[in-house]
From TrEMBL:
A Pfam family: V-set
Keyword Nucleus attributed: no
Gene3D superfamilies (UniProt xref): Immunoglobulins (2.60.40.10)
Keywords tagged on the record: Glycoprotein, Signal
Domain named Immunoglobulin V-set: residues: 15-60
Protein name per UniProt: Pregnancy specific beta-1-glycoprotein 6
Family the entry assigns: Belongs to the immunoglobulin superfamily. CEA family.
């Protein structure tokens, strides 16, 4: 992890959840590697990186990117 200041949360295999300094209480990470962000605001808009690491069997990780965009009508 290169930017710990913006780190939100992690899910560890045995159900342990680790929260980072960017955690606001609106984010939920699940054991199936999905992430739910509730009550998204304009301040949440931007690019995010999701990094999944499977440990214990020699498998590497995968990195995904997503963008939050809000449209106001």
């Amino acid at each position: 992890m290169t930017d710990l200041y913006h780190y939100i949360t992690s899910y560890v295999v045995h159900g342990q959840i680790i929260y980072g300094p960017a955690y606001s209480g609106r984010e939920t990470v699940y054991s199936n590697a999905s992430l739910l962000i509730q009550n998204v605001t304009q301040e949440d808009a931007g690019s995010y990186t999701l990094h999944i690491i499977k440990r214990g069997d020699g498998t590497g990780g995968v990195t995904g990117y997503f963008t939050v965009t809000l449209y106001c009508e």
